[in-house]
Amino acid sequence: MNMQGxxxxxxxxxxxxxxxxxxxxxxxVYDELRRLAASYLKNERADHTLQATALVHEAxxxxxxxxxxxxxNRANFIGVMAKLMRRILxxxxxxxxxxxRGGDNAKVPISESEPAATTxxxxxxxxxxxxxxxxxxxxxxxxxxxxxKFFGGLTIDEITEVLSQGEEKISTAxxxxxxxxxxxxxxxxxxxx
Length: 193
Hints:
Blueprint: H1 3-15, H2 19-41, H3 52-63, H4 74-100, E1 107-109, E2 122-124, H5 125-138, H6 140-151, H7 156-163, H8 172-191
Antiparallel strand pairs: 1-2
Helix pairs in contact: 1-2, 2-3, 2-4, 3-4, 4-6, 5-6, 5-8, 6-8
């Protein structure tokens, strides 16, 4: 069986009670998750206390609460882990900013294709999170695409696969269109802050 199939099988085994399945899954996805975490942290302030390994481990601890989630495939798992990492970083930034009373907010780039490109303008991570929450209230599918693409590093094809797992089937063209719309909306919203 291929690695993608193994990931899905281990997720399903874990969700039905096999604790060892999560341990068998970890080596198959750990390097990808660590790269994802490192790309997030590359955009954080220089004195950030979280390291990529710690971010992945914190996400795994949060994952344990999702044991009975209906896992679809590797892309779905990476997307969920990306959301967990995002939450951890947002919570960490909020705690840090509360301690500093609004100073040194985390800045991240908004990029068309790379979640961690350094050549794009940087935005406040908390402002991005708040804008994304506002956007999700009116455009939940497009907001989900932003999370999967920007925070999860998934490709358009992988996002299409993840979003087509339920009853609603969507095309790659729809995902691309929603991604362009979401980027434009968020860019406009963040420039007005």
